[in-house]
Amino acid sequence: MSAPLTRRNGMLILVPLTLCWGANWPAMHIALAEIPIWTFRTLCLVLGGAGLLAIAAASGASLRIPRRELRPLLICSFFNITAWHLLSAAGLQLMLAGRASIVAFTMPLWAGLIAWPVLSERPTRRNLMGLGLGLAGIAALILPEWESVVASPYGVPLMIGAAICWAAGTVGVKYWRWSMPTVVVTGWQVLLGGIPIAIGMLIFERGYDFATVDLPGWLGLAYTVLVAMLFCQWAYFKVVATFPAQLASISVLAIPIVGVASSSLLTGEAIGIDVVVALVCVLSGLGLVLFQPAKRPVTATAARAEG
């Protein structure tokens, strides 16, 4: 792969990376209001995966998958891509984008629990406190809106399921050893994980008429593919190659904040006290888990950096 950035240029990329990933939540929400789940995710994953592999090839990396790494790659693809993208898209249709981003980024908290039996990494007191704060944040979102939750009860469980699947995939990436560069592992995960979703599109949404999609839907789709799937992934690898993993984790902490703020600006979502309390709880929990003084926990940043 290409050489790491200088620290100054790395910082210049870290800021737009965080802003662009956070803003992807309202962009997806807008697109999913017009484009069905299976079709939307198929386009994102096929185009995004192909683009990532093209970037890897252009940087001189080999795209060959070693035979011994194919099975682990398929397992990680299922949890990190297939399950995550389907469950999060379904949950996003039933929740406001800002709230959905908060629930989704409880992922590192679940990863700490899954790592216990899989990686023999016993949860520390900070891990358990972080998980408790994350659950308190979810409760802060649910309880004030209990009537609407009862009327449409599936949004939060779907997003929690998405976060747990993402966590399982993250632990899997750390569990197996990879000879392929991180960008190649990620590109193949995106492309292979998109195959079951593409099959689902052909079964459930065959003949979908794209003429029904208005400009906001197309813009939301284009943003997700070009900015979130391509630029953000490329920029992320550059940042991880430049900075220590814990410093790169700052972007993970900031994404829900950007998600809530951008959702308010772009879709008019209200930021009430419940959202603020939930955000504080989840960010505090993430801070406890991501920045432990001794042993590094399993996080999306660490797992992808070591992939």
Shape: globular
Secondary-structure class: mainly alpha
How many strands, which pairing sense, and closed or not: the largest β-sheet? Answer: none
The tally of helices reads 14
InterPro entries: AA-Vitamin_Transporters (IPR050638), EamA_dom (IPR000620), EmrE-like (IPR037185)
Organism: Hypericibacter terrae
Subcellular location: Cell membrane
Membrane topology: Multi-pass membrane protein
Give structural notes.
- The structure is a single chain.
- The protein is mainly α.
- It has one domain.
- It contains 14 helices and no strands.
- Helix 3 (67-94) runs antiparallel to helix 8 and helix 4 packs parallel to helix 13 (273-290).
- The longest helix has 28 residues, at 67-94.
- The radius of gyration is 18 Å and the shape is globular.
- The two termini are 14 Å apart.
- Residues 297-307 have low confidence and may be disordered.
- It holds the Pfam family EamA.
- It is found in: Cell membrane.
- It is a multi-pass membrane protein.
Tell me the layout of helices and strands.
Elements: H1 7-32, H2 37-58, H3 67-94, H4 97-104, H5 107-119, H6 125-142, H7 146-151, H8 155-175, H9 182-204, H10 215-242, H11 245-248, H12 250-267, H13 273-290, H14 300-306
Helix pairs in contact: 1-4, 1-10, 1-12, 2-3, 2-9, 2-10, 3-8, 3-9, 4-12, 4-13, 5-6, 5-8, 6-13, 8-14, 12-13
List keywords for this structure.
307 residues; mainly alpha; 14 helices; 78% helix; 0% strand; globular; disordered C terminus
Give a quick precis of the structure.
The chain is mainly α. It has helices spanning 7-32, 37-58, 67-94, 97-104, 107-119, 125-142, 146-151, 155-175, 182-204, 215-242, 245-248, 250-267, 273-290, 300-306. It is globular.
